[in-house]
Design goal:
Blueprint lengths: L1 H23 L8 E8 L6 E7 L9 H14 L22 E8 L2 E8 L3 H9 L10
Antiparallel strand pairs: 1-2, 1-3, 3-4
Length: 138
């Protein structure tokens, strides 16, 4: 009888020990992505826009599509805000005077990235972020 009682207490204690720390150690919810996008030199897409993802909001003209794109990029594991690595050879083509600056929080980390369309690498970086950045090809 005593063995059964002790065995029952051990099981209950083990379950309690497993559940209580998990509930206490739960991290606080992380706020969603929040970016400020400043665009110039593109013609129709210029301006300063707030983009919130999780939930979608802000005054970005294509907020829902932009958040979907950022979600796709997050799944890919790369960093779309990383600069072109040094010593990379880029095609010498000019994509126009478009420039953008993106600041804020994405995937829980700070973002402070500048974009232009001055060569093939920079054009590719820009195009990766369409519709976060306006489609300057149109």
């Amino acid at each position: 009888m005593v063995r059964r009682l002790l065995a029952g207490l051990v099981v209950v204690g083990g379950v309690y020990a497993a559940v209580v720390p998990a509930a206490v150690a739960s991290p606080l919810p992380v706020p969603g992505d929040r970016l400020t996008v400043v665009v110039s030199g593109t013609g129709g897409g210029d301006g300063t826009f707030q983009l919130d993802c999780g939930p979608v909001g802000g005054d970005h003209p294509r907020a829902e599509q932009a958040c979907e794109r950022l979600g796709e990029l997050a799944l890919g594991g790369g960093d779309p805000f990383a600069p072109v690595p040094p010593h990379v050879m880029c095609t010498m083509q000019y994509g126009g005077p478009g420039a953008a600056h993106v600041t804020g929080i994405w995937q829980g980390r700070s973002v402070d990235a500048s974009f232009n369309r001055g060569n093939g690498c920079e054009i590719s970086r820009w195009n990766t972020l369409v519709p976060v950045l306006p489609d300057a090809r149109a």
